[in-house]
Amino acid sequence: MCERSVRPTTACMHARRRWLLAIPALVGAVLLALWLWPEDLSSPSDDGAMGGGFDDVTVLGGAGGARGGDPGEAGRARGGDAGLSASEWRPTASVVDDPGSPHGSLHGRVVSSRDGAPVAGAELVFLREGSSTTARSDAQGRFAAQVSEPGRYVLSVATAEGFLPYAPEWGHSAIAFEARPRQRIEGVVVQLRPERQVEVQVVDGDEAPVAGASVRVLGASSGERAMAPVREAYTTDAEGRATVTLWRWASIEARHPDHGLGRARARGADTIQITLRPARPEQTASESIAGRVVDTAGQPIEGALVTAFRRARGLHPSAQGATGADGAFELLGLDVGEHVLMARHPMHPDARVGPVQTGATDATLTMQSGLTIAGRVVDAEGQAVPAVHVSARGGGTALTRRTMGAVVSYDADGRFLVSGLSEGEYELVATSRGMPPSDPVMATAGGPDVTLTLERGAQILGLVRDDEGAPIAGARVSIETGLGRRSATADPIAPTVTDADGAFVLDGVGSEPRSIRVTADGHHGRLVSGFTAASGATRRLEVTLSRVADGEEARTELVGIGVNVWPRGDALVVGRVVEGGSAEAAGLHRGDRILAVDGAPVEGLGFRPALERIRGTEGSTVVLTIQRAGEDAPAQLPIVRTRIRT
Asked: Dihedral, CA atoms, 550, 553, 559, 565, nearest 10 degrees?
């Protein structure tokens, strides 16, 4: 287990080197090997009010693809999110001849994920067996990694003062490039998320401050990253306060021997109060689970990441560790009780075992050999597309398929390779900058190569203004994509930020209806649904955002019915029903199963298209076919779409 600190330790670097170098190279290509920790696949998305957030660190021109996880288990380990992940960025880099790079080089920029501003002084460490290369960004955020010998290099870590680090152990995509003589890879953009600091106030049952309390950032929502160089332990001052740096999905625990224990989720607040109360017996002891990860022949697998998480509801710390050369791992700091163990490795499909009781020392996870799918991506004229993102989705129906593997590849011939797959058929979808997603193509893991075709996309030119007509600079505009990693249709479009005149450009928009999300600091967000544009066309859009009044919480304005749903089987299951919304007025209840929208079965539509159909213009009516528990026959439920803010 590596020491937690702001900068990576030497031990962490060696562990990270072993882990990252296990990712296979793609011969002749600049490969971004992608495998992230699973999102909460059971997390509900709604008809516009939620979803579409941004990941902590993302890579433009080098993005990750999340593998699917079990909705009830791994999702709870990380916490729910239907937001934009690193898998939803389109590659932009290119490969050019450069006599000034005798052994090869990688050029790019480091920017803030908040507003795209350059990040100066960022340090990027690229590892190769036997050597490493360090690059530092200049005042414009530009960096150049000039290597001393050709070969395959992996970005191990990227750090900058005031920002959370980039590290694959955090679930960020691993970035690998093949350095070749006289070849320069340029245009890669690494985004770092600004540190989020919150003030934690620890009090006792009488609301009195507790000085000297131990405050710890837990991995209850995100999984404790075994090698992530972020501080996690603090102590409260005389007023019971501590300023804590958080990563996304983190939870916080406070303890004091005289007062007990308290835990809280960070969520979005700037101040968090934790009340200490007598701890439950299972929380007072810090337990561990140890074991080994092996292949089907019983041989140890080095560099597998193993996570333990509780199936039980509530705030429970998860733990994560990397296996050594003997395949052994030990996971510390767990609450007493049963846990599920999951192992992940880039060359193998995920493995899991459970329940495993804390205190176990002989837990064994067996990983199957991974298969690959290879192929080529071309444009409508049959020309190779050199920078592509390809995802492989499997399991279930169009409604419930999830990403099982993905890759961003740079290759002059448009070649790609998705690895670490189980046996079976997968639906492949490709994307690239300026192009909408390809039509899905079915492929068999270990089978023949496939070809994916990308068409030309549309362009949106827009303006964002406030309710007084003044332009809003720095507003974030994106095609909403966080509508189900289970959905068979990938739609990863890089968000953009408005300029000083409030103007923005979105490229690569598909012809199917889309929802456009616009947010800005100090303003209520807006979701514009049902936006369409023909292939190759240019459309204009103007969006008005209302200011957030003093004491008011920022919300998202949209037209919909006011429900929160998630896919299950052949239906969308209703979760939260917005109070005062038209769905509530029409009698839609939590647990109702939506089978069809205006007569079209949601199973055939897929998750995102089904949600787009539920949305629509203000005052129009959508007819849902619902199945209610305890009733034999489905019912038709007409609901009027209204403007809501949630």
From this structure: -170
Residue 40 lies inside a defined structural domain of this protein: no
Note the pLDDT tens digit of each residue in 462-492. 999 999 999 999 998 888 654 333 333 334 4
Residues 306-338: tens digit of each pLDDT: 888 877 666 666 777 888 899 999 988 787 888
Closest CA to 401 of 428, 367, 432: 428
Of 406, 436, 454, which residue constitutes the final position of a domain? 454
Q: Report if residue 114 sits inside a domain.
A: yes
Q: Is the dihedral of CA 63, 69, 71, 73 positive or negative?
A: negative
- Which pLDDT does position 530 carry in this prediction? 79
CA contacts within 13 A on the Cβ side of 472: 28
Amino acid in position 577: V
Percentage of residues in the chain with pLDDT exceeding 70?
76
3-state secondary structure of 636: strand
- Per-residue pLDDT reduced to its tens digit, 579-630: 888 999 999 999 999 999 999 999 888 888 888 889 888 899 999 999 988 7
Considering the domain architecture, whether residues 301 and 356 belong to the same structural domain is answered as yes
Identity of the amino acid at 120: A
Q: Considering only 12-26, 65-79, 483-497, 631-645, which range has the smallest mean pLDDT?
A: 65-79
Q: What is the dihedral of CA 23, 84, 51, 529, to 10 degrees?
A: -140
Q: Are 85 and 389 in contact (CB under 8 A)?
A: no
Query: Domain of 184: which CATH number?
Result: 2.60.40.1120
Answer yes or no: do 382 and 416 share one domain: yes
3-state secondary structure of 87: helix
Burial of 507 (0-12, 13-18, 19+ CB in 10 A): middle
Higher pLDDT, 100 or 92: 100
- What tokens were used for 548? 């957030």
Task: Give the pLDDT of residue 491.
Answer: 40
Instruction: Please state, rounded to an integer, the average pLDDT across all residues of the chain.
Output: 77
Joined together, the tokens standing for residue 553 give 């919480």
Share above pLDDT 90 across residues of the chain, in percent, rounded to a whole number: 30
Q: Are 490 and 508 in contact (CB under 8 A)?
A: no
Are 214 and 229 members of one domain?
yes
Asked whether residue 436 falls in the same domain as residue 526, the answer is no
Name residue 214's beta-bridge partners.
235, 255
**pLDDT at site 319:** 76
CATH number of the domain at 610, please. Answer: 2.30.42.10
Instruction: Return d(Cα 602, Cα 594) in angstroms, integer.
Output: 8
| CATH number where 541 lies | 2.60.40.4130
Supply the range of the domain harboring residue 533. Answer: 458-558
- Residue 71 belongs to a domain: no
This prediction has a pTM of 0.65
- The Cα 13–Cα 342 span in angstroms is 23
The size of the chain, in residues, is 646
Q: Which residue has the tokens 């807006």?
A: 526
Degrees, nearest 5: CA angle 172-173-175: 130
> Domain ends where: 454, 478, 504?
454
Q: Which residues contact 578 (CB under 8 A, 6 or more apart)?
A: 46, 49, 562, 563, 564, 584, 644, 646
d(CA 251, CA 301): 31
Amino acid identity of residue 361, one-letter, is T
Give the strand pairing for 183-192 and 260-265. unpaired
Confidence class of residue 267 from pLDDT cuts 50, 70 and 90?
Answer: low
3-state secondary structure (DSSP) of residue 283: helix
Residue 340: inside a domain, yes or no?
Answer: yes
